[in-house]
DNA sequence: ATCTCTGTTTCG
DNA sequence: CGAAACAGAGA
């Protein structure tokens, strides 16, 4: 068992680093596809689309959108992680928010903080403890596993809500707080143990190896979503911490996804808005979106065929990381899946974690966070501005009906 | 064939 | 009015 556990851990450990890589990679693909179906109506999990995103940089679109034409303001959270953050006065940059482990973000009610995986550390710990217990049959009261620092971190960031169910596992007599994460881990682990004591194949492993555990498979549909979530959640640095030694990031050949790379680079990363007038050199892509980048995780469209395995394995850079995560998510996902956005909603707002099916939707949504109102009423006397073009139009129609017809129409 | 954008509609 | 979902069109 211990071995198994250990292996699991390792597996998860590797991924952590991935996250950052994506930015490093050149970015090109951004996105991708998303079926445009309405999730609500059809809950079909998008089937994996065979084709991958091409490096679409929505070049054409940029030009027409008024959106782009506006000088974006501050790069909002934009500053990519590297750059800086500081964008919004009132709100901490997305990056910041996410980075902070403690405290739950103000906004995300729904997704809240996505479920995080139990940290590897925890797993290890558990494993270790278990092992010890097994050997000694639980004799030594000496606390075998005390929460490792990393562990704690993870715990903190984990949304209790997700794992709330987590009970303290009796088996582990740890006096730990009910931190969710651990709980999760413990529960999972304990579960594994309980149910399949000898069973080696935990969920984690499969993913890493490329085999998905059956259970995992079942949850596929949900995964995408989680992925996004996890992205948001995962703090790069945290991940790293956990597995410093982890080799990680390896894009395995097995991942057929040459195209998978979408993850490698954040979609918004540079392309779309890059051409923006604002022209802030690389740092400011364009406007509101920039922060996504900053967040890095933000909205990477989930690949059509995103497979947990692939992601984990090949994902060069997915922040989230890895197989381990995946697995964890799976567990959680089962219960919370329904609540989460549909698989199609791959574009996740870094700020509030809300998911959208289209990049444009996310963009618009970002306005709500930034307060940006790029659409101004064309009427001379009216200086109203709107964050959503449609709303502006509506306003014109309603308020300036007679006049607007001319102006807007033309 | 696929993806994104725009516009309309709907909800809070 | 703000924001999101839905539906259609264009690239």
UniProtKB/TrEMBL annotation:
Domain of life: Eukaryota
Compositionally biased spans, kind Basic and acidic residues: 12-21
Species in which this protein is naturally found: Sporormia fimetaria CBS 119925
Keywords, sorted A to Z: Metal-binding, Nucleus, Repeat, Transcription, Transcription regulation, Zinc, Zinc-finger
Region described as Disordered: spans on this chain: 1-282
Protein name: C2H2-type domain-containing protein
GO BP: any one term: regulation of gene expression
PROSITE patterns in the record: ZINC_FINGER_C2H2_1 (PS00028), ZINC_FINGER_C2H2_2 (PS50157)
Subcellular location: Nucleus
Biased composition (Low complexity): 42-51, 64-88, 115-124, 213-224, 266-282
Molecular function, one GO term: zinc ion binding
GO cellular-component term (any): nucleus
Pfam families linked: zf-C2H2
Keyword Aminoacyl-tRNA synthetase: no
Main location group: nucleus
SUPFAM superfamilies in the cross-refs: beta-beta-alpha zinc fingers
SMART domains xrefs: ZnF_C2H2
Residues annotated as domain C2H2-type: 347-374, 375-405
Biased composition (Polar residues): 136-172, 256-265
Feature: compositional bias, Basic residues: 22-41, 52-63
PANTHER family: C2H2-TYPE DOMAIN-CONTAINING PROTEIN, PR DOMAIN ZINC FINGER PROTEIN
